[in-house]
Amino acid sequence: MQFNHIFFISLLSFMPLMTMAQQQDAQKSEQTTQQQASQKENEQNKASSTSENISSAEKNAIKQPMPIKTSTLQKQDLKHYLAKEHISPLLVGPTEYVTLVKNYTNANSKGVAILLPDWQQGATNPKAINFLANTLPDHGWTTISIQPNNKPDNYPSVAIKTSEKVEANKKAIKTYKEGFSSLIQAVMNKAKEYPGIVIIISQGMHSTLLVDLFNQENYEPANAVILLSSYVDTSAEFAFKENKLFAEQLAMSEYPVLDLLLKNDHPQTITYAKQRKSIAEQEMKVYYRQRQLNNTVTGYYPETELLSQIRSWLKAVGW
Predict the structure, then answer these.
(1) Does residue 58 share a domain with residue 173?
(2) Considering the chain, what percentage of its residues have pLDDT values greater than 70?
(3) Which residues have C-beta within 8 Å of that of residue 129, sequence separation ≥ 6?
(4) Which residues neighbour 294 within 8 Å (Cβ) at sequence distance 6 or greater?
(5) Which residue, of 64, 81, 104, is where some domain finishes?
(6) Which of 48, 111, 154, 177 can bridge 197 by disulfide, Cβ–Cβ 3.0-4.6 Å?
(7) Do 296 and 176 lie in a common domain?
(8) Residue 263 binned pLDDT confidence (cut-offs 50, 70, 90)
(9) Mean pLDDT of 77-87
(10) Strand, helix or coil at 262?
């Protein structure tokens, strides 16, 4: 009996210790459960936040408008800033072009001067076109300034293989020429509504496309063509061949040509101007004159000298 009593007392003495251990284990288990629940909640919040961000980014991407083409902006600017009486929309197939018409203000009408800026320039190009549009009417010319399309995308081609580059350039120019041909034909028909002769003053790459167009048998050219800083805009390895072809077409043409360039001009314009003059002399093209004008700002024609050269040449031809 004494032994049992002692054992019972010993057992009672250990019971508080066991209870404390169980409490500690229970607390640790509860803490672990809380940590797991908190971690799970954080992960859910992060996932929800990421989903909201993605959804917001997608919504912003949908709402973000696409960039407006440069040609469209140029047309909008012309319609917004210029007087409505000078703006004359021209529908060519499904495409609407903007032309600026200024009637002659002199006593005598000499004809129509169509002003064709380069394919990266506007109808109010300050380098030469805008000055001529505002000045020629005082000398008897009705001016029609054209707002052309910009050059084709990815032209000249940057393909590594020469064969791929040639094919890409041909395809781009062919597509552009189709629209260009329709535009010139429509403007020429519009110019015939006015009395007198029709001359075209063309700038840059458009000069080469224009000469190539007039070289076709079924196409009626203008009475005269004035070229401003003309050259073939193409890859460096094709520049000599393409510019030589342009010079040969120019030399074989029957209409009078005034070929103007600047002392500070596009490098290819200066490089291939001598070639054009040489081939024209070899073919004994009578009504061909080339003049290089002095300028201070690259690409900008001196206004007084430009007008003087054009007027004196037209008088020499008989107009």
Answers:
(1) no
(2) 74
(3) 115, 117, 121, 123, 145, 201, 203
(4) 262, 263, 302, 305
(5) 64
(6) 111
(7) yes
(8) very high
(9) 69
(10) strand
Q: Residue 267, preceding bond cis, omega within 30 degrees?
A: no
Amino acid, res. 309: Q
Q: pTM score, two decimals?
A: 0.77
Same domain as 165, residue 33:
no
b/e for 207-240, b at 16 or more Cβ within 10 A? bbbbbbbbbeeeeebbebbbbbbbbbbbbeeebe
Q: Are 181 and 213 in contact (CB under 8 A)?
A: yes
pLDDT recorded at residue 242: 94
Of residues 135 and 22, which shows the higher confidence score? 135
pLDDT one-digit tens code per residue, 292-309? 999 999 899 999 999 999
57 and 146 share one domain: no
Looking at the DSSP bridge assignments, the partners of residue 90 are: 97
* Residues 140 and 112 sit within 8 Å (Cβ to Cβ): no
Q: Are residues 39 and 178 in the same domain?
A: no
Measured distance CA(198)–CA(224) in Å, rounded: 7
- Residues 115/84, Cβ–Cβ less than 8 Å: no
Nearest residue to 200 (alpha-carbon basis) of 190, 210, 189: 210
Sheet containing 111-116: order of strands? 87-92, 95-102, 141-146, 111-116, 197-203, 224-228, 257-262, 288-293
User: pLDDT tens-digit profile of 226-246?
Assistant: 999 999 999 888 999 999 999
Number of domain units in the chain: 2
Residues 80, 50 share a domain: no
Q: Regarding beta strands 197-203 and 111-116, do their DSSP bridges make them parallel or antiparallel, or are they unpaired?
A: parallel
Strands 197-203 and 257-262: unpaired
Distances (CA, A) of 47 to 52, 55, 211: 9, 12, 65
Question: 222 and 97: one domain?
Answer: yes
Strand-pairing partners, residue 98, are: 89
Point out the domain boundary residue: 39, 64, 89.
64
Q: Are residues 11 and 149 in the same domain?
A: no
Domain residues for 225? 70-317
What are the angstrom distances between the C-alpha of 69 and each of 38, 63, 126, 184? Answer: 53, 18, 21, 22
Tokens of 62: 């949908």
